[in-house]
Each structure stands twice: as structure tokens, then as C-alpha cells.
Description:
This protein is an alpha+beta fold. The chain has helices at 24-33, 112-115, 121-125, 127-135, 163-171, 265-272, 282-298, 313-323, and strands at residues 6-12, 15-21, 48-55, 70-74, 79-83, 86-91, 95-100, 105-111, 139-141, 143-148, 151-156, 176-179, 183-187, 192-196, 201-203, 226-228, 241-252, 259-262, 301-306. The chain has two domains: 6-135, no CATH class; 139-323, Rossmann fold (3-Layer(aba) Sandwich). The protein has eight helices and 19 strands. Strand 4 (70-74) and strand 5 form a beta hairpin. The N and C termini lie far apart (60 Å).
Amino acid sequence: MPEKLYSSTFKISNTSVIISTDDGILHNGIRNWLNTFNADFHGYGDAVKIKILGLHKSDTMPIPIPENARCIYEGHTARYLTNNHIWYFEIPEIGRMAIDLNNKEINACAYVENIFSEAWHLQDFMHPLFELLRMEELYLFHSGAVCIDNWGLMLAGRSGRGKSTLSLHLLANGFSFMSDDRCFIERTKTGYDLTGFLEPVKFWPQNVRHITSINNIEQSGQNDKTVIDIKDYFPYSISKKCTLKAIIFPRWCPGKSSRLEAIKPAKAIVEILPLTMECLFSNTSKKHFEFNCELVERLPMAVLTLGKDKSVWHKLIRSFLVNGVVQ
């Protein structure tokens, strides 16, 4: 690593993450992506440490992969290999990482022009970070999250189920916004903490015309969702962390009446498992699976049909949070 480094510290729940790079563009891009977790201090201690060398198109990757490294996963864009306690992660034309599991350290190199050529390239490349956080028992879910009176609600479901529409509706009716697409959950002595990953919100404008503060926003394109920074519209209604109280599985059914129905743990686990980020390490995969089973056994859960009577959505959820059961 060059002597001159740009370094930033992030605090994701109780875990510190220190990311250093020699490239200013890469540094700014990472800070923008992890803006929710920016920390003012620069302490080290027992933190996850990542060092990234910025590369240009003519540069060769300076991190070699040993010939005897064993490939344990290879997808369309990425592959993981292992050699003793060092894991290697590579996305061709984007970058490569050497991951020291024992010391929670990552040495990486990335082609700066390519990593920002598409919005998702940086997020895909930083996947090993979430594996190390999982080792700290901080689990990432592809779910929305809101809260009220420090009671957190995870909005779980695959794309198209109405998570963003519901979160914006709740935001306009007294709830605080935490995340649109990703959140972290971890155990505490008394239950579970929910930490939001605040990113731009993607939604269909026609679904939120009843929300005054955003009803004049037009659709980005014929087949594209509109994207907004929630801080521009609700700057004082954002929360970072709270106690996870319950899980809601939205179902977008605009032609039906809205209703709340109980869901059994066996069905809930089938819904939640696809929402957990890909786990490549066997020990953390096992822990995350067990954690999912624990959540569906211990937390109140319900399916909310998002019907034509939108005015009752938040009332149904408030009642569910207070009573812990479907009335």
C-alpha cells in the first residue's frame, strides 16, 4: 500500500469498519455508499480493516491467487477461493480481495473506472465485508425497515411485494424511516436490535399518490421505478437503530381489501431465507440459518395484504405492534 492513504471509519451497529485506499475517487464513492455509518473517530481497536489499492485499466492485479487455492464458489460474475485461513474473492475486470479471516482484515485492489461504471458494482465487490460482519453476528437482510417509539418493524419480502410503498405510507403516518432494501439484525440481552442501511428509495409513483409530500414526483421511465433520497423529503423522520419488535410480510393486492393475517414459522422461514445475503463461509451460513429460525420462532409476524383501502394500513400495523398478535 502506498504511504498516502485516504482512510474512513464506519460504525455499523457496534462493529467498527476501517476502510483505507490510495485513490480519492474510490474513497469518496465508498463514503457515499456507507454514508449512514460514517463515524467521526479514527480509532482502530478490534475493527474490521479493509485496504484497497486503486488500479487503472493498464495495471495488472498485484494480489496473486495461489495455484493450490481451492475454488468453493463460482457464479456468473464472481468467485471465491480458499487457501488455509486466507480466502480470495474476485470479480474479473472489477477487482480482487485477499481475506484474512483470523484477523478480520482484507487487502484488495480494484479498477476504479470499472467499479463505478454501474451502480451495483461497488456493492457486489464489497460482499466480503458483509461476511465479516456476519462473523460478528451482525446479520444482513434484504428487507425494508421502519420504527415508531423505538419499536422496529422489518418489512420482508421479495421485489414487487410492496415493501417500498408500505414504508413510504408508514413514514407519512408517524413512523420513522430506516431502510428501503437492506437492514442489519443482531441479538441483544433482551431481544434484537435493528439497524437500517439508508440508501436511495426506489418506488412506483402511482402507488403513493395518496402521500401529499411526494405525490408530484413523476416516474423516471416507462419501465423504471423512481429513485429519491429520503432525506430530501423527510429529513427529520429517519432513525438509525431501534429494537426489533415484529416482522411484516407485505402483499401488494390493490384490487382487494386490506387485512392482516397470522403466518406460521414454517411458512415465514421459507419467505425469509431468500432475503438473507449469500453466505459463502460454512460456519457463518449455519449461524445465519439458525438465526433466521430463531427470529421466526420468537417474534410476532403477520402478512399484510396491501389492498385498495390504503388508509387502514398504518392502523393495522399500529394495532399489531401494540398487541403482538393479529386481532
